[in-house]
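Standup notes
- DV: blocked on the single-chain target, sequence here:
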Amino acid sequence: DHGQIIGHVALSPVTITDGHGNKAEGWYGLGPISVLPQRQGQGIGSRLMAQAVAELRAMQAAGCVLLGDPAYYERFGFHAHVSLQLPGVPPDYFMALALRGPAPEGIVQYSDAFNAVD
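- DV (later): unblocked, structure below
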């Protein structure tokens, strides 16, 4: 599209801490993901998701979490896991994709930058 950005996806490390203070290593959060409104429905978001999961596999990530619509993200292998929680978020909309072993148990925390307000 003549050098115009039409879509975007981001991955960032997350912290998952269980009730004993143990932290799961190698987990990432996916988001935000976006596609220009006039380009939605053309498979761009699906290609961005496929590339993001491929990058996670190449990095040998343990897994990935995201907050979103299950009707969309389940097709990429993401599912709600009762063992993972993001405080204040309905559990049906907080999903994970385990890439190495099972999903851990615990509370997920994104980088403080996601909570910043100015």
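- Follow-up: The mean pLDDT is 94.
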